[in-house]
Every structure is written in C-alpha cells, then in structure tokens.
Specification:
Blueprint lengths: L9 H14 L11 H8 L3 H14 L2 E4 L3 E4 L7 H10 L3 H22 L2 H15 L4 H18 L3 H16 L17 H14 L3 H20 L3
Antiparallel strand pairs: 1-2
Helix pairs in contact: 1-3, 4-8, 5-7, 5-8, 5-9, 5-10, 6-7, 6-9, 7-8, 9-10
Length: 229
Amino acid sequence: MLTSPDILTRSDAIAALRDFIEAGRYAPGDRLPPERELMGSLNMSRTILRKALDALEREGAIWRHVGKGTFISGSVSAAQPSLVADISQQLTPVKMMRARLSIEPAIAREAAVNASPGAIQRIRDAVERAMEAPTWEEYERQDDCLHRAIAEASDNIMLLSVFDHLNQVRRAVAWKTVIRGTDRPPRDHTSFAEHREIAAAIADCDPAGAQTAMRRHIGSVSARLFGDV
C-alpha cells in the first residue's frame, strides 16, 4: 500500500529521492524530471519534495536553475558525507580559506561574463537579505546563499559543482568559536560593502573587477579570522 504523500518524514523523502536518482542512473549534468512528475513518481506532496530537493542541494548533490530545471552535480550516495568528513579532518581552517581564495574569485569572474538578468537579481536579493539579517546565524545563511548565487550565475555546471563540494567541506571543517560582540552584524560590517562591490562588478559585466572584489572579500574575512593567509 502506498504511503500518503502528506505523512512522509523528511528523512524518508530524502532517502526516496536518492533511491530514485540512483535507480535512474542519473549522472552529473543530467536533468531530473519536473517537480510534478517527481511528485507522482515518488508519491510525495510538493512541500515534502521541495524539502528533499533543498536537502540534496545543500549537500551539493543537485543544483537548480530557475527556468531550466534541477540537475545532478555530484554523487547522491550515502557515502558522500563520509568523503566530506575525511577531507575536512585533514584540512585546517587556514587551508580551507586558501582554497576559497584560489577558487571563488575565478567563479566570480565567470559570473561577470555569463550572468543572466535573473541571476544578477538573485545576487542582489541575497546581498540585501544578508544586510537585513536579524541574527548572525541568519547572516551566515544568507552569505552562503549569496556565494552560491554567484556560482550559479557562472552558468557552468562544473564550476557550480566545484563550489558545492568546496562549500560542503567548508561547513564540516572544525572552526574555532567566533566571539560575537553583538546579536547581529553591525550596519558598518565590512562584508556588506564588499558584497555590494562584487554584485556591482558582476552586473557591470566586469570580469576583472568581479575577480578582484571577490578576492578582496575573502581575503578580508581571512584576515579577520587568522591574519594574512
């Protein structure tokens, strides 16, 4: 007997979606069926399906492009988290930031070349949401969304996949506790201006400017945390 689409748990939905992708032998770059078709195939409500899609997107297993669909960006097997854990255990926070300094400026450069009007708007929206975040936790979430929106704007599935794996490892690296003196980022938080500079360079189709602005931003974050890296 089929399970009601409204009583599936989030973990069951994620597992079912993983099984569907693996059974279909989807490879990186392949597009998944539309949401309506997935809802029928998996016997899920739209709400539950989107929660499962959100979870796989955060893991870097899939990526979604408005107007184009949902695509496979990496392995969706249960072994993936252990690989991330293995890498994160061998990677110091300083080396993590050096990896970001090597990769994300180049992604920003490609975003300035390829960003669509819709992608530029999503970047601007993320910049604004980060500025208005009521807590540091929400700011970090919106900052994460901003950097991923920039990777999406590159319109290059390989770069997006690299970013997703980089970001997944970044979350798993053992960071020292950062002492916050306020409940939320202050209005003069340096990252706000840096975010606006990156977004402006991408909107202006300025590859060199976007690359420089992203490198300056990550360098600034690195200096606050560790000094020069």
